[in-house]
Amino acid sequence: DPALTLRQVTHVYVNDKGASLAVEDLNLTVQRGEFVSLVGPSGCGKTTVLSMLAGLFLPTRGEVLLNNRQVKQPSTLVGYMLQQDYLFPWRTILDNAALGLELTGSKTRAAVEKAADLLAELGLPGSGARYPHELSGGMRQRVALARTLATEPEVLLLDEPFSALDLHIKLQLEDLVKETLRRLGKTALLVTHDLSEAVAMSDRVIVLAANPGRIRCELTIPDSIR
Ligand code: ADP
Ligand code: ADP
């Protein structure tokens, strides 16, 4: 029972400079609860794939499905984590973590309570009253993850979430994200150009060739080396 499906997906960007083929005839399935990485050189269409799954735009051709239904628009079923944390500097950590919940209609008090629980769970107890500039990059990414998880998405899309971090912090966060998503039973699709990161985090790694991304190979990662 797949959570995510791309069936013969082609996407062409069209703008005033012309047309650019980003993805061509891509087939991809991610099972419920599976952690899959998409690895490939810059420009091979990784972000395009995530954007379509997030409902930001429709593919030019083919089908993009979430729970076997066509993705037509963004929904709270899907959470997104990016390289930049996009925290609001004028909001406290706690109010940043609660923001997604507030925007989707939760009462402020309930949102803040849930955000505080998640921050504690992600190793940031008691930092809620601080502001983003007081935290390190790794800490801020934990806040971004708390904000994403607060709305209880079924699927997490992760677009190079660690690539701006120092190696040591990056390894710590990889572990934290992997363990947290596994414990919560989330389905995840991670985009990265770092093959060792993909191997460390995933059940399965899909390697794409250069633009337009075609699947070059697929690796199933045994538990013993993760
Ligand atoms: P990746 O995430 O693997 O680096 P992208 O999905 O960002 O790749 O881009 C795939 C291709 O589509 C690239 O050739 C890129 O230049 C092109 N592209 C991406 N976004 C746009 C856009 N908004 N308009 C036109 N072309 C784009
Ligand atoms: P329509 O029948 O008008 O096309 P939709 O399919 O967009 O309606 O949505 C019908 C209901 O199913 C909505 O409540 C929506 O939140 C939910 N829904 C839509 N897509 C999905 C999905 N991929 N997975 C789970 N629920 C969905």
From TrEMBL:
Annotated signal peptide: none
One function term, GO molecular function aspect: ATP hydrolysis activity
Keywords: ATP-binding, Nucleotide-binding, Transport
Domain ABC transporter, chain residue ranges per copy: 4-226
UniProt keyword ATP-binding present: yes
Record flagged with keyword ATP-binding: yes
Protein name according to UniProt: NitT/TauT family transport system ATP-binding protein
Organism: Paenibacillus algorifonticola
Organism lineage string: Bacteria, Bacillati, Bacillota, Bacilli, Bacillales
